[in-house]
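Entry type: protein chain
Record version: 2
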Amino acid sequence: MKSIREILLIALLLPQSSLFAAEKDTNETEKYYPLDIGYTWIYKGKFLGQPVDKKITIEKKDGSYFVDNTGAMLKHDRDGLRDNKRYLIKTPIKKGNKWLSILSSQSTEHYEIVQTDIKAKFKNEIIKNCIKVRSTARIDASKDMVIEWIYAPDIGMLNLSSYILKNKKDWEPQGNIELVDFIKPEKK
């Protein structure tokens, strides 16, 4: 039987071990989407046949969220990277990790990390260990909206591709947006 001293020691050490785990998890998603004021991502591509040119800059911090020039809010917590409605990347970062985001009684998004070993090209460099996250949301009985993101270590989102999936087999591309530049402000 354990002594009271041993039980108290375990009780004191257990919360600290979960704090270290939380720090590790947070760092795991920060690797794939760094957040800091002044970070800027520039994207180009097409969505529904229309050109897309988008510049996203983190402008401020609101509580624990970083807010960009479009009003989008992102933060890392012990479970992953999230906006104000859902997790975009959830720990652990491993192939097959799945989670749900219930936005309303009519809208549920299903997420999965589908690859963790992607080699992607950015600015004539090959970036290793990129991950692909897939989200699927039901549109109606025969159609799903599928969005895939590729995230690169120390850069963030490299690519977003969206599709309509008909009858679980026919993929109709809707759009593809690629990162063309990533700018980190110089440290002062």
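Comment: The two ends are 57 Å apart (CA to CA).
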